[in-house]
Specification:
0% strand
Length: 87
């Protein structure tokens, strides 16, 4: 499940990068190459920051799910052991 979510997130991030690049390429108010380069750097910087935060958030969510599952298994294990001891 985690791998599918990770793959979907990366795919959406690639799409976002491509859309932003196309949008920059079609802008008419960029006067020269230095303006374009500056805009590209700003866009990449903003996207990188946003994507790192998304991935960090996804990783924290996954770790929380794993911890909850581990705790649930421990509870089930102790319950099962107590039931076995009763028999």
């Amino acid at each position: 499940m985690f791998f599918r979510e990770k793959k979907d997130l990366e795919l959406s991030q690639v799409r976002q990068n491509i859309e932003d690049s196309k949008r920059l390429g079609s802008e008419k108010n960029i006067r020269n190459k230095s303006d374009l380069d500056r805009r590209v750097r700003e866009l990449k910087s903003n996207n990188t920051k946003k994507f790192v935060e998304e991935r960090k958030r996804q990783l924290m969510k996954h770790e929380r799910e794993v911890n909850n599952l581990t705790n649930s298994h421990e509870i089930q294990k102790t319950t099962l052991l107590t039931e076995i001891d009763k028999v």
